[in-house]
Amino acid sequence: MPSLPDVMTPDAAALAAAAAAYPAPDTHQDAPLAPARAALVEFLTRMGDTTLVLGHRLSEWCGHGPVLEEDIGVANVALDLIGQTQFWLGLAGEIEGRGRKADDLAFLRDVWEFRNVLLVELPNGDFGQTIMRQFLFDAWHVAMLRALTSSSEPRVAEIAVKAIKEAHYHLEKSADLVVRLGDGTEESHRRMQAALDLLWPYAGEFFLGDATDAVLAEAGIAPDPASLRSAFDATVGPVLAEATLAVPAGSFAQKGGRRGIHTEHLGRMLAEMQFLQRAYPGATW
Questions:
Q1: For helices 127-148 and 154-182, what crossing angle results, to 10°?
Q2: What is the spatial distance between Cα 72 and Cα 64, in angstroms, rounded to a whole number?
Q3: Crossing angle for the helix pair 154-182 and 229-242, to the nearest 10 degrees
Q4: Which end of the chain is more exposed for a tag (fewer CB within 10 A), N or C?
Q5: pLDDT 10s digit of each residue in the chain, 285 long?
Q6: What string of DSSP letters covers 214-283?
Q7: Of 90, 86, 88, 79, which is closest to residue 55 (Cα–Cα)?
Q8: What is the DSSP letter of 56?
């Protein structure tokens, strides 16, 4: 669709010239990366995309939270996740070696190039659904970051050491809210159970491995996703029990996000998130 005029640029021709001069990344023309390096870039992109998309989803609550304390709390978690995204995607761009920075990866890729899990791109729903999504993510996130603190890649370990402090706080907060709402009123319990029933199959994607994960696990860079399941269950089980919520039966897991196959929700989200950079390439504050 046509973009709005740049009110800060009196000369439209100058704006057009600036846009044309901005280098658009074209990965198809670049030489392929070595397998181990490509696997590391893929892993970093998966981590960064997951925190980016969830951070943006949480930011949608800003000004709409049920109470002021939770409005501010959710916004702060969103900021933490976006900050972690800068580390993950920044390192991905550096190792990739094609001149792309974190902002380029966030704002100049199309939906099929994103590698986040499906869980985080789902719409927020009501506040209970947002909190249940956050809790399931946090339980996995802490387990993953704990494993990454021992990564054989020092830069990955450094990011994990920094991020896990925030992740522990996020998990404590979301777990507390799951218990308060699950074991609260009849209505809040109903909504939390409905949220768990909806989101539980999406959590299974966290633990599905592929060839990329096998390469990284063999090199000691990142854990086998399946190995994190026991820690996840050990965290989630007692909290759900205290919240009087029943874990859904069955082992079916939604999947595809880590391979670039997404729901329709991600494309709509990216259209909003990426609009400014795509309308005015290279624009800065």
A1: 150
A2: 10
A3: 20
A4: C
A5: 333 333 333 343 443 343 344 333 344 444 566 778 999 999 999 999 999 999 999 999 888 877 777 878 899 999 999 999 999 999 999 999 999 999 999 999 999 999 999 999 999 999 999 999 999 999 999 999 999 999 999 999 999 999 999 999 999 999 999 999 999 999 999 999 999 999 999 999 999 999 999 999 999 999 999 999 999 999 999 999 999 999 999 889 999 999 999 999 999 999 999 999 888 888 876
A6: HHHHHHTSS--GGGGHHHHHHHHHHHHHHTT-PPPS-------GGGT---HHHHHHHHHHTHHHHHSTT-
A7: 79
A8: H
CA-based angle 158:160:166, to the nearest 5?
Answer: 120
Burial 85-114 (b: 16+ CB within 10 A, else e): bbbbbbbbbbbbebebebebbbebbebeeb
Considering only the top CATH level, what class is 34-279? Answer: mainly alpha
What is the maximal distance between C-alpha atoms in the chain? 63
Q: What is the pTM of this model?
A: 0.86
- Rounded Cα distance, 211 and 217, in Å: 10
Q: Report which of 212, 198, 201, 224 is spatially closest to residue 260, judged by C-alpha positions.
A: 212
Tokens encoding 203? 């959590």
Q: Which two tokens stand for residue 44?
A: 């970093």
Asked whether the beta carbons of 85 and 55 are under 8 A apart, the reply is yes
Spatial separation of the C-alpha atoms in residues 162 and 11, rounded to whole Å: 45
Cα distances from 195 to residues 1, 142, 182, in angstroms, run 36, 21, 10
Domain regions of the chain by residue span: 34-279
123: closest CA among 272, 268, 276, 255? 268
